[in-house]
Amino acid sequence: GTTAMAQDLPPLEQKDRYKVGFAQMESNNPWRIAETKSFHDTAEACGWDLIATDAAGSAAKQVADVDSMIAQGIDVLFLPPREEKPLIPAVMKARAAGIPTFLVDRSVDPAVAKPGEHFVAFLGSDFIDQGNRAAQWLMENFEGDKGIIVQLEGTTGSSPANDRKKGFDDAIAADDRFEIVASQTGDFARDLGRQVMETLLQAHPDVNVVYAHNDEMAIGAIQALELAGRKPGEDVTIVSIDGTRDALQAIIDGKMGVTVESSPFFGPLACEVMKKYAAGETIPEWVKVEDRIFTKDNAADHIDEAY
Ligand code: AHR
């Protein structure tokens, strides 16, 4: 059972300073930069000697970065796995080296690497629920007769792309006003989101809804739509996830309908959970982050704290 497995997890000593690894996957969007900054901002108060790396969008480099952290003798590892399968070796190697590992913001394939056994816990949002809530907002607020949806997916094989698609598709399938005519990856990146949207607009000029798995791709889609003479917010409804500053501004400007929050500020939570673990407390396998929702009703109230 869970208790026996939890006892098998590598222990963490209680001490004043820890050598902590944070192996970031990439830094090409404001969300990632805010997450890395959150770890740096937490380091001093939590007694971390922080080793932070940037895998520049390569799962192979992220695995190598974890290898190097293990070699440097980290006490604890915080890992946002870029994709669900390619990062399993990193989790397993840290486990074999006796280093307690916490997955932050993204997860790995749970059929292979398990919380409470191969890693301590997953700290993060419910991505299925985020997709579900984006769909719910659309179903409640869409005013046309027929919604022709283009979906811009996140990084292929990543847990947020898999789960945000599932949560949205399952909810939308129950409403026959809507049809998803295309669903393609934009790799969570603004520029690729723009390019993919440009291409999809040629094939589906009648699109009037865009569901983007993150705000960066939504902003890219808005740029593509405007270049094509469309009016996002008027003739195209944009729904998205994250809550970046640019997205909140797009909501205030009337171009975007909703963004479901996905917070990048993991530093303080990582500190709290690590200290509890060191104190011998049982950590739930999933430390769930609760997400808000941003619309024209509250975007202006939150833009100052956005990233
Ligand atoms: O894992 C969370 C996702 O990753 C965020 O939604 C996205 O912006 C980031 O790159």
UniProtKB/TrEMBL annotation:
Keyword Ribosomal protein: no
A cellular component term, taken from the record's GO annotations: cell envelope
Superkingdom of the organism of origin: Bacteria
The Periplasmic binding protein domain, residue ranges: 21-281
Species annotation: Ruegeria arenilitoris
Name used for this protein in its record: ABC transporter periplasmic-binding protein YtfQ
Major subcellular site: other
GO molecular function list: carbohydrate binding
Compartments where found: Cell envelope
Keywords, alphabetical: Signal
Gene3D superfamilies: 3.40.50.2300
Protein family: Belongs to the bacterial solute-binding protein 2 family.
